[in-house]
Each structure stands twice: as C-alpha cells, then as structure tokens.
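Troubleshooting log. The previous structure file for this entry was overwritten by mistake, so regenerating from the original sequence record. Sequence copied from the archived sheet and checked twice against the printout by T.R.
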Amino acid sequence: MKYINILPRHKYPWLTTLYSMILDMKPKTVIEYGTEHGGTAIVIGLALKELYEREQHKGVVYTFDTFETQSKGEIGSSPNYNVAVDHVAHYGLQEYIKVDRGDFFEFCSRPNKEFDLLYFDIDNDGDKVLEMYEGCKTNIEQGSIVLFEGGSVTRDNVPWMIDKNKTKINDVNIPFKMLTPEQKYSCSIIYNPAIYNLDI
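Regenerated output below.
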C-alpha cells in the first residue's frame, strides 16, 4: 500500500481498511456523498492513484456534498466546497477526485444510476440508509457495492441519534454487514453475495 503513510488525519480509525478495499475491488466509477473536507475521498483517490501507477487501472471518485447549504436531516456539519477542492489539490489528486455540489436524496431517486462503488456519510441513520437501499437496490443486485459510515450498535446510540430520535440503522431491514469492530465510527457494506464471495 504505497500511500498508506500519507493518508489524511481523520476521526475514522478504519481508513487503512478503506484504502485496502479499493485496491482489492478496483472500482472505475466511485460515487461519494458527504465530501465534507475531502478526507475519505482522498483515501479512495490515493488508492486509485496507486492502482493506476501499478497496473494502469483508471478510476475516478465523483464526490458530492450540499456544502454551504443543508440537506434534509443533517445535524449541523459545516462542509465547505473551497476547502474540499484545496484539500484534494494539496494531495495532487485532481485527476482522481472530482468535487461537486449534489444532493444524496436526489441521487437516490434518479433512474439509471451507474457506479461500481457508492460511499456515503451524510450523518447516516436508518431512514437514510433505507432510502439509499431502495434507490440503489437494482445497482446492488447487478454488482455495485455500497459502503457507508455506521452500522454498529454503539454508533446507533450516539447522543445525536438519541436526542433527535433518529431511526437506528439496525432497526431497518437492510442486508448490510459491519466491516469494523463495534465502535462509535463504524463502516458497513452492502453487496450481492451471489456475485461476490467476500470473506467478511
């Protein structure tokens, strides 16, 4: 893992796992919602850069956020478009990461979506994960993979989830698997087991 030592500092302890998964999955089209300052997009972009340098595999991350405006249900994060663009440029990843404004819920309702991997982190709760699953189920059945922040019981019980009476991710009927140990910031995956034999 060539760039593992220059990953951005981040609150998520599983970014090396994300980097490794990109190397294994070799996605061409990655869609991310919840750019914030670009941290996870940069991790994915560095892995895609390594794949290109190693085997000329060309992949791109299209990362979206509502940035200066709030989408429905957000808990008050303050993403900034210029900060995200500058962060990507600092790592020299403009060829691998495209930053734009976009709304996750509009994306979920859009027909004819195409992506190899979707990663989303928009202050996730059970309702948001369910909306994603219903909007992307055909893609998942056809082989697209979804990664998302959340999935642990600990994450379901963080104070803002309780205070705002959010639906717990574990209370909705979605076939996800948690990739990380039981922790506050967890990461989970949804995929078609008839297509992928993932050792999870």
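Strands lie at 29-33, 60-65, 97-101, 117-120, 145-149, 177-178, 187-190. Archived copy saved in two places this time.
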